[in-house]
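So, read this over?
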Amino acid sequence: QEEKKQLTLKVEELERKLETTNTQNIEFLQVIAKREESIHQCQLRLEEKTHECSSLARQLEMAIEDAKRQVEQARERAASRERAAQSKLLDLETQLSRNKTELNQLRRSKDDAERRYESRLQDLKDRLEQSESTNRSMQNYVQFLKSSYANVF
């Protein structure tokens, strides 16, 4: 009876450990979901910045065409308007350059986040596999104890 009591205590302890492992697995899945949402948000920001760059490129093309028309319409006013257009062009190019730099930084950040996510995911998979292996070992042990107990009685 004492041996049975000890085996029962061991089984209960193993069941508590299994429940703890299941709780950890749920927490890991929640962490993964949060990471995926973070990556999704980064992708949305990247798309917004890409759209903004396209818009700025169109604005730049429109500014260049406008400057050409102004030169054709009035040679006398061309010098002053060309300076204004060149100034606007420089500002747009500077802004475009800044946006491209920011876009590249966002891409690098996204790539880094994806690498970290993949690393974390692999780590979680490894831990899950280890947990499952431990669970299998515990289940085999419990089965062994049951069969030993059955053989004894």
